[in-house]
Amino acid sequence: MNQSSKSTAIVDDKDLDGDLNPDYTLRMIRLSLFRWIFAGLILLFFPIVHCSGQTPSSPSTQQTVVVLTKLSPPVYPAIALQARITGDIELALDIRQDGKVASAVVTSGPPLLQQAALNSATQSQFECHKCSETVTDYRLLYTFKVVELRVSCSVPEDCNKTVPVQHAPEVTQLENHITLVSEAAGLCICDVIKKVRSLKCLYLWRCGLS
User: Is 72 exposed, middle or buried (0-12, 13-18, 19+ CB in 10 A)?
Assistant: First the structure.
């Protein structure tokens, strides 16, 4: 561009009084506004591009999941039920890739209830999703509860009277927590010692009235 064309451009940007041309000012405002909008779009779009550019996790890094698919219902041991023994049994299991139980160990709980929990766990069926190891750790919690049936034991005729169990044991499962609720038959026990008749009736516990 020669000197005459430069002079013409300067004259176009200014009016005859030397002030900026209104059209030129408007163009500069529009240009500045466009730059700010463009910069804002870049800042807004950058995090999306950054997140979408992350490398997806490979199947080997995804979480391993063990699922109890079919529970073998636990059975309340008769001696524990008669003695009104309740409590929680915690088990540590090793689950193979095919869902079978490789091993099961009791970590805590009343001794008389442990075998019942072990039998239930080892006979249950599992599924091991995305299991890359030979065995996968899994935890099970068994809760044993007793509902005592009340029996009338107020007169001598109630001696040795038994209230039979009315409902079958109830088993519920919430993920890895299994609860077993069983009823215990009520029994009124009476003893005759010498000439003193005593009535003993707190279920299987002995109490006397002379």
Answer: middle
Mean per-residue pLDDT over the chain, rounded: 77
Check whether domain 65-147+168-184 has CATH 3.30.750.24, yes or no: no
**CA atoms lying within 13 Å on the CB side of residue 18:** 0
- 165-187 mean pLDDT: 90
Is 166 buried (19+), middle (13-18) or exposed (0-12) by CB count in 10 A?
A: exposed
Q: Are 85 and 204 in contact (CB under 8 A)?
A: no
Distance CA 116, CA 80 (A): 10
Q: Is the pLDDT of residue 85 over 70?
A: yes
State the alpha helices, DSSP H only, in the chain: 3-13, 22-52, 78-82, 111-123
Domain edges within the chain: 3-52, 65-147+168-184
Report pLDDT for 143: 98
When pLDDT is averaged across residues 163-176 and rounded to a whole number, the result is 89
CB 143 within 8 A of CB 72: no
Q: Is the pLDDT of residue 58 over 60?
A: no
Q: Output 86 or 58, whichever has higher pLDDT.
A: 86
Amino acid at 181: V
